[in-house]
């Protein structure tokens, strides 16, 4: 008998996974991340791209079997694109950190949700498939410095989303392996998607990957085959990454969700400690923008390259939401001006405002070798504010709320969900969603989708929450 390929070993891992591999503690952490993903998705509903997607769905296909968050029906693959795009849009989703880069495990959420609804799955089955997807994406991210090699983490997303979707659609181990191969072979995603000028596609690349993954799983179910030597082949992923992928796929644990980190500011993960430090200085010393002469931010190399003006490009003139949440200069200025960095701070009118641009010109970002040596084990930053009256205020900050050393609790996640969703769902509906997610493994996924379809796609209720502080 020939040795199974890596794709086949991953297919077997996904097929064998069961509820017995989810401990009670892990189930609660997954419910936390699921609620967090839903809050992110609901907050994104007013975004202009989602009206454009609905128009596209109407043109290409009418109604279908899957629900859109905020109402409406479409096909499973297009629901994967839409709901995945929602989760990513306001840049508040979870992350997994590794020395060579990171991934966003909840990029899997929209695809797995669509496959679950299409398959009339239970909440338990949805959670197992989502756990499988988290595990696959994070295990590969842990050993392959994908972004350091010039690729985007949508590559491993194709593998994970296809495996989780295939499990929900009833594929056997060999069919899941083919789904993985079909989904990944044409999904070679490049890290330049993060380069300036950052485009809208940075946030929608995961959605199109999830869309293809669901469709690929459906094709594999019907007998389509893919290149099973996706990794080992003479021109496979191992050659592309210039390294073998030594992962123990016989390990059936589904615990990696405990290594995910959460956000409370609309910013890339590297900006979370920067914004905590900036806001602490502002609030402690009651600073106003007019008090500030200069701001200096020292950060680890990866944060500088991606968001500080390093190798990914200049950060001196942001104009769009996509540029703003990857721009430490703008994010620091917005925090100092508005005392918060939430969805409102990513609106184009705020990004382009004269006061923001005037202040961001006073911000300098520099890499720090000592901080870089400790990344990603520690996300260390130092913010120094020089005031016009001669004061020099400095804050060295390690980590952030939502990080591994200070994880979000369920209660904190509920607060974040209420903040993000309050304009789209009244208190009763929000309470129903929270309660259902807390016991999701006891309900069919259709019950959750019925509640999400009741969420208003347009803001209907007043915004009262100041944002989690």
Oligomer: single chain
Number of strands: 8
Helix content: 40-55%
Mean pLDDT: 95
The shape is: globular
Give a short account of the largest sheet: 4 strands, mixed
Q: Percent of residues in beta strands?
A: 5-15%
Structural description of this entry:
49% of the residues lie in helices and 8% in strands. It has 20 helices and eight strands. It has helices at 6-16, 24-43, 48-60, 76-89, 109-118, 123-143, 154-168, 173-185, 201-221, 237-241, 271-284, 301-307, 321-324, 328-338, 348-351, 354-360, 369-374, 410-421, 427-438, 445-454, and strands at residues 66-67, 73-74, 96-98, 101-103, 292-299, 363-367, 380-387, 392-398. The longest helix is centred in the N-terminal third of the chain and has 21 residues, at 123-143. The model has no long low-confidence stretch (mean pLDDT 95).
Task: Describe the structure in brief.
The protein is an alpha+beta fold and 469 residues long. The protein has 20 helices and eight strands.
